[in-house]
Write a structure and sequence with these properties.
Elements lengths: L1 H4 L3 H11 L4 E4 L5 H13 L3 E5 L2 H15 L4 E2 L14 H15 L11 E5 H5 L2 E2 L1 H6 L1 E5 L6 H10 L3 E2 L8 E5 L2 E5 L6 E7 L2 E8 L6 E5 L1 E5 L3 H5 L11 E2 L10 E5 L1 H19 L11 H8 L3 E5 L11 E3 L3 E2 L7 H11 L4 E6 L2 H14 L7 E5 L6 E3 L4 E5 H5 L28 E4 L3 E13 L2 E9 L5 E5 L6 E3 L17 H29 L10 H8 L7 H14 L6 E6 L5 H14 L3 E5 L3 H14 L7 E4 L5 H12 L5 E4 L13 E7 L6 H11 L3 E6 L4 H8 L4 E5 L10 E6 L2 H13 L3 E5 L6 H11 L5 E4 L5 H12 L5 E4 L12 E6 L7 H8 L10 E6 L7 H12 L6 H12 L1 H5 L1 H10 L1 H16 L10 E3 L14 H13 L3 H15 L4 H18 L2 E7 L2 E6 L2 H8 L5 E6 L2 E5 ...
Parallel strand pairs: 1-16, 1-17, 2-4, 2-15, 3-4, 7-8, 15-16, 19-20, 19-22, 28-33, 28-34, 29-31, 29-32, 30-31, 32-33, 35-40, 36-38, 36-39, 37-38, 39-40, 41-42
Antiparallel strand pairs: 5-14, 6-13, 8-9, 9-10, 10-11, 11-12, 18-21, 21-22, 23-24, 23-27, 24-25, 25-26, 42-43, 43-45, 44-45
Helix pairs in contact: 2-3, 3-4, 10-23, 15-30, 15-31, 16-18, 17-18, 27-28, 30-31, 34-36
Amino acid sequence: MFEKVLKNRILSAAAERLAAGRAAKLTGVWGSAGALAAAALGRMAGRPVLFVTSHLDAADEVADDIEVFSGEAAQIFPAWEVDVGTDHVSDEVVSERLRLCNLLSQPSQQRDESVDYIVAPVMALLQPVPSREALAAARLELRKGRDLGPDELAGWLVEADFENVEQVDQQGQFARRGGIVDIFPPGVAQALRIEFFGDRIESIRRFDLDTLRSTDEIASYDLLAWDKRSAAGSARAGSQADQAAQLTSYLPADTIVCIPEPQDVADLGREVYDRIHSDLIGPDAPSLMHRVEDVLGALGAFAQVHLHAFGPKDSSAALLDLGIRSLQQLSLNTAEAIGELGELAAAARVWVFCENPAEASRFQELLAGSRLARASRIRTRIGHVQCGFHWPAEELVVVGHHEIFHRYAKRRRIRRVRMGRPIDSLLDLQEGDYVVHVGHGICKFDGLRTLQRDGLSEEYLTLRFAAGAVLHVPASRINLIQKYIGAKQRRVSLSRLGSLTWARHKKQVGEAVRDLAAEMLRIQALRHAGQGISYTTGTDWQRRFAEEFIYSETEDQLKSMVEIDRDMGRPRPMDRLLCGDVGFGKTELAMRAAFRVVEAGRQAAVLVPTTVLASQHGRTFKERFADYPVHVDVISRLRPPARQAEILRRLKLAQIDVIIGTHRLLSKDVAFADLGLVIIDEEQRFGVAHKEHLMRMRATVDVLTMTATPIPRTLHMALLGLRDISSLATAPLDRRAIRTEVCHCDDRLLRVAILRELNRGGQVFFLHNRVVDIEPLAEKVRALVPEARISVAHGQMPDARLESTMLKFVDRGIDVLVCTTIIESGLDIPTANTMIIHDADRFGLSELHQLRGRVGRYKHRAYCYLLLPDSRPVTPVAAKRLKAVEEFSDLGAGFQIAIRDLEIRGAGNILGPQQSGHIAAVGYELYCELLGDAVRDLRGEPPRPRRETHVELGIDAYVPRGYIASQRQRMEIYRRLARCCGPGDLKQLAADLEDAYGPVPPQVDTLMDAAEIRVRAAAAGIDSIIRMDPDIVFSVCDMAAAAGVFEGAAGTVRLVDEKTVYWRPPKACMETPTLLRVLLKRLKQSGQEV
């Protein structure tokens, strides 16, 4: 297709004008044809192309279109955003702008990426970039063998505005650990690890941010400064005008500049410039942007192509008419839409662009079934075309798959963003935290201390108990310590060291949880005894349905789908909890499960807490099932009674396959023909009566429960195996953490925040949860931002008006929606990326997290402002709640939010009043352990392995501060060490330490050997090994297993009793390295598997 377009007569004439140094004005350009024309002109002339768009959304669409038509990558030059009230510039945008400038500054033969096509929104061109001279001065060559020391590199990084952190996690950070410096430069997917030998670079390695392990070695790297002020070109303070330049200063002289509707683009640029100067920085502040006239003048130095749908009124140049027409909307009925394509095929070749091979295969199947006479003239290609068109002169019709099936009209363009990191461990101790020592009770953690005894050093966790008693626990036994969660009172009672009270509390809780476990097991047994349907897995349609998902699944999604498939393949009813943060892909998995049920001839019901969410899910399911003969409908109070009655009639007659609704679905008049699956979204938001109804359902049909902030009872039952859980803990590609700020309500802040979102073509949620005064607040917002289209939505509005308002907001007819928490669950509006929550202290923690999750679902950085009231004080509990939301702003924070909710509200509020005292007595984590023990005992399963060998050999075994300065990182190493179950784990840990921190010091080597002795001794049935010169004393619990340790041992072996063995090795063996080596040799010879 593209090769044929390259021979077009009109485009050839335009290319000739460009070659002669004249502008070419093309009319009759519709839809994605503008990108096709730009790509063709670039190829015909053999020249690079800069395509200017109005917004970033349009830039994404044009870049996709260019790549699809030309087969070459298109680079996007994005616009940066400044945070409200700060000089902070978006890290990702700075990175991308610097990367592209750096690419353009290199000779073409040295570039590792093509820059033949660049797409830039006009706002990005208005914003300055560093001059070529400033960019060159900001570059540092890292080369293996170069004379450059870690001090000099660290100093350069600080000057270059890199942030010095303990461990790099984001672009623009570096971490130094002795002779190793980790750097995460802008514009790359992997961080760098620079290892030095003295003041010389010994190696440059890329490493994985999740595992911290090196992946490959490179010879050199050009490091670019991360000075965000100069990268932006200007900031409110310290700007140097002579360093600011335009992107055009980097473009090759023969670049072709394509501008669709140039007057509209110029007008929009002026509007954006004026808004920013009048609102974001103030009219008298230094400029953050180039003037529109300066940018247009700079662009005028290049050959230009103007693209028009119609001819411009003031045109003085001859116009070249391509004669391309817009493609009329195809019928909503798939069969009729394919018939309309057949009519177009009578006079043209029709190209249908599908997202993936599965979509293309499904379309070809439908096309073959239509028996069109001209089906052979309808072809498919893989790719996303935003807007189809008809080009009669070329006998060409281009149509996107979404235009036939009316789904996925918006598509996220995948950027250079790494996969999100899995949720970290719950145990993240800080000094001052309450902790539980499993053997001694509740205490306070006072940090790590290095203590000396008999001239030997070891690191200890310092714990403070009641009456000022202090206990030092060897860091190697960190597994005995748990973070305390559970009491809602402000002051937690510390245990008295040496008292019997703690043991008595543990015994009482153990007895109580046994009763609870018995009840849980009874419910589980009833469910397992129920007869369900075993569904077939892996059919052609199921495989195709999964392949049609237009995004890349995360590993967690794939794993969870396997677990759901396994449950649905069993003859007992499924009851699985699908736990994943907002936007992590739960709905897609639910749709796949529903598809499987419907394919087997049964029905699926989706139960949601709000009418707005029901409408949202209705659109999502209809789009996703559009290619298949699956009937989806929605029932809620928004539907007229007559329509509800018709839906219920069709549901009973099996004429509806998937029904989506609120608690209306649980009414007595709702009858299914053959219900197979119930999908419950946010079960904790339903009332007690509804939950009892759902419990009865679980005995007969498959149930899949979705939640973003799992109530901890559900969570810990799942972890104990009393409910099946699938966890989505990894963020999808292209998801960014939401920048969350707690601040006082300020008129200027509100105006700036709203205008910034509007300037980038987005929308705003303004949340206020009191209906009584929501209209006056909306009037205030209208007065603050008169240029914005503002509407109100709340649950007490007439149903028809509420639905109309929400649909208008979805269709971008509203800029700011002043609303209540009716938007809390599941609403997915990609263009809404700013959330303002008024009186945020009135909301619960889970509510705030859910509300924040309504933004950040598209390519932009999302913002959430938690506004504090000026008229009343904020309670300490509310302040703690807001701090938790601000603290856990990273992706995947739902788990931490649920745990912090447990801390703040008290475990008893969530786990039930009967258990609240027991949880407060021993802490949430130990409570769950005791409950798990009771479950295993009642099931007749063996108890958890508890063998923990205590090794005390009088050796220097610890992680020196000089090796790892960070207390948090040292604790993580001790935690990993305590979890090692065999020599393989220890070898991997040693390799990771050497990779990340450099050569392992003797103290750490000794620590590793002691850990291996501990692991092997546990396998050999030994409880403790204690040095009591001149003997080594072994406390043995399984003499048969341990016998091999002592057989043939040098020196004297004395059996004191059936549990105690004294071994006196030769004196030469008592030196530390030799003693460890001999002990390991003896333990290996025991013959016990580790």
